[in-house]
Amino acid sequence: CKFLLNRKSVIEGQRCALFASLRCALRCGALVLFVTSDASFHSVSFSETDHPKVLITGGLGQLGVGLAKLLRKRFGKNNVILSDIRKPSSNVYHSGPFIYSDILDYKNLREIVVNNRITWLVHYSALLSAVGEANVALARSVNITGLHNILDIAAEHGLRLFVPSTIGAFGPTSPRNPTPDLCVQRPRTIYGVSKVHAELMGEYYHHRYGLDFRCLRYPGIISADSQPGGGTTDYAVQIFHDAIKTGKFECNLKPDTRLPMMYIDDCLRATLEVMEAPADTLSMRTYNINAMSFTPEELAQELQKQMPELEVTYDVDHVRQAIADSWPMNFDDSNARKDWGWKHDYDLPELVQTMLNYFGAETRMARAN
Ligand SMILES: NC(=O)C1=CN([C@@H]2O[C@H](COP(=O)(O)OP(=O)(O)OC[C@H]3O[C@@H](n4cnc5c(N)ncnc54)[C@H](O)[C@@H]3O)[C@@H](O)[C@H]2O)C=CC1
Ligand SMILES: CC(=O)[C@H](N)C(=O)O
Questions:
Q1: How confident is residue 97, by pLDDT bands cut at 50, 70 and 90?
Q2: What's the EC number here (predicted)?
Q3: Which of 63, 165, 240, 267 is such that its CA lies 20 to 30 A from the CA of 289?
């Protein structure tokens, strides 16, 4: 185990002790029972009749609170812990367990996983495409160094690990219409580079150590009750807020910029479904998922069917436009549909209707109060 001792010396403290002995055992053939061609540590960490104990990192962003709600409905309130480095609203704080966790603090992460007997880890912490370009050093640290912590913790403790990837993991040399699961991936943003790295590292840990890694490449996600965190697809959420508030919207992408998009309920359900899918149905560990593709002009037209007075103008942000022009226009998710039965519920008309219903109900409630 000389390799392991050398490697251990560059990793601080006790961090790798357990994982190192596991790898040592694997190298020496002592843990043959664990390692099948699709080995899953899940089977040794909790029985199938138990509920998983879930930790969500970066849980106070656009997606985490909604995912916690869905998972708590399924597994029980106390079996799903939200975590972040931000302060939760009182609503979120009182809706179930919340804990401070900085994914750059390895020991703190390990303590949370051990003390709470975590079995599933959903890793949502990240800097998205536009904020990542504005702060490359921080994006590199959170999206890459943070991911390394998560992978090591998950492998050490036999967790089932979900890490989302994105349409942003593709670049200008990828086929864009449609973009298949397996093709050239040469993204031009730190966000995209970090997500390709996450896909490859997760798959490597799966094949090398049997880590039960699962990854979906999400399209741009549209939600009514949570705000996006600084991405290129944010316009498709903002248009609803501005349309309701002011009847006007200034779009930062060109009117004909086509991008894959999905309503949040579909995204969160897909996440639960892939996490629950039997390992033998997964022919891959990273899947594209898709629902619809539209341009700002098409979204505005669908909204104008119900709000004919809505005025949309364009003031292009060149950083975001360059990113969008390098991303897929249509996403091929046929493997997800074939392997584990992925099916979206919301197309553009249902999305617009659902968003408007939400804001309509909110406005009526505000008026009544
Ligand atoms: N929202 C979308 O349209 C899409 C999201 N995704 C992925 O889904 C995941 C969740 O996305 P969103 O909720 O939209 O992101 P978001 O940007 O809204 O939230 C990310 C969260 O990470 C937290 N965070 C930042 N640094 C941290 C650290 N050091 N330790 C712990 N937490 C930290 C932030 O406080 C924030 O609450 C991300 O990995 C993102 O890449 C992928 C494709 C589309
Ligand atoms: C598609 C994404 O990953 C995100 N919404 C972004 O625009 O950065």
A1: very high
A2: 1.1.1.103
A3: 240
- The bound ligand whose nearest atom lies closest to the alpha carbon of 92 is 1
Domain ranges, residue 120: 40-223+263-292+330-347
Residue 356 lies in a domain: no
Domain count for the chain = 1
* Inter-residue contact 358 to 302 (CB < 8 Å): no
The rounded distance, in Å, linking the Cα atoms of 142 and 211 is 21
3-state SS, residue 112: helix
- Could you give the CA distance from residue 54 to residue 60 in angstroms, rounded to a whole number? 15
- Which residue of the set 93, 100, 106, 191 is catalytic? 191
Any idea which residue has 């399209």 for tokens? 219
pLDDT tens digits for range 246-275:
999 999 999 999 999 999 999 999 999 999
Could you tell me the pLDDT band of residue 49, with boundaries at 50, 70 and 90?
low
Specify the CATH number for the domain of residue 85: 3.40.50.720
What element of type H or E holds 3?
A: helix 2-9
The H or E element containing residue 250 is strand 248-251
Amino acid at position 287, single letter: Y
Task: Give domain status of residue 313, yes or no.
Answer: no
According to the model, what pLDDT value does residue 50 have? 78
> Does the Cβ of 231 fall within 6 Å of ligand 2?
yes
Q: Quick one: which ligand is closest to 234's CA?
A: 2
The pLDDT value recorded for residue 334 is 98
For ligand 2, atom 2, the nearest C-alpha belongs to 220
Residue type, 330: N
The atom number, within ligand 2, closest to the CA of 167 reads: 1
Nearest Cα to 84, choosing from 65, 67, 71, 70? Answer: 65
- Tell whether 162 is covered by a domain: yes
Task: Using the mean position of ligand 2's atoms as its centre, give its distance from the Cα of residue 289 in Å.
Answer: 14
- Of 56-60, 208-212, 222-226, 360-364, give the lowest mean pLDDT range: 360-364
Q: Tens of pLDDT along 282-338?
A: 999 999 999 999 999 999 999 999 999 999 999 999 999 999 999 999 999 999 999
Residue 137: inside a domain: yes
Residue 191 appears among annotated catalytic residues: yes
Name the residue at shortest CA distance from atom 4 of ligand 2. Answer: 231
When comparing pLDDT for 332 and 27, which is higher?
332
